[in-house]
Structure of 3-methyl-2-oxobutanoate hydroxymethyltransferase:
Amino acid sequence: MNISPYPHLQQQTRKPLTLADFARMKAEGEKIASLTCYDASFAALEDRAGVDLVLVGDSLGNVIQGASTTVGVSLDDMVYHSRITAAGLERAFLMTDLPFLTYATPDAALAASHRLMAEGQAKMVKIEGGAEIAETVSHLTTYGVPVCAHMGLRPQLVHKLGGFKVQGRDDAAADAMVRDARLLEEAGADMLLLECVPSTLAARITAAASVPVIGIGAGPDTDGQILVIYDILGLSPGRKPRFVKNFMADADCLDTATADYVAAVKDRSYPAPEHGFK
């Protein structure tokens, strides 16, 4: 019998989560708690804490490799970190990023996704883009690859965007993002991820989407939240984005901090208003 003080853990089984579970969670209003991960030890930590969705993000370029952007992360890097993260998971669902320019054509995306799923044991791939990746999303889903489309701030385009900036603040950009979200869902995307967009826009996209929408710096009304594991544990150096909360500050150990994050997502105390953008 589970006697954990955390309600979300008392209600959980250890059965591996599926896309059907995330669809049910959206329908029932249960928030999806997500974190990035890069190795088996942190994967086991997140699994114990009740994290639902684990992302092997190309953010490993920043937090593991020490780079200033994700552009230099290779497919080999992603396959390796996905495989060793999968080794630590029992219940959580594993999603892995397709790195910069590995999905420039639908066939290239399919080949890269094959490696992430076959060698890296990912259950879903994440691609940054809007309407321009709809054909690629359709191609992947035709061949049975689950896809999460990453919209809003797209870190792989940092040089094109001129920095890490909030996206979708003006009406035209917001309307375009709403249209892109609908197009990507119609193309077969199983999930959407919104990064650094105004809270009102994220709420609008989430309400219109029939697939789960995960937010990072996108306010409280998305179907779930994701943060970088190193950020919630206070391990990342330098200035933190406004949407980050250090859960280690009031915790006695890593397990407590990680479980506190999941509980805060589930009970909707995170993100608070100060973690979003207007």
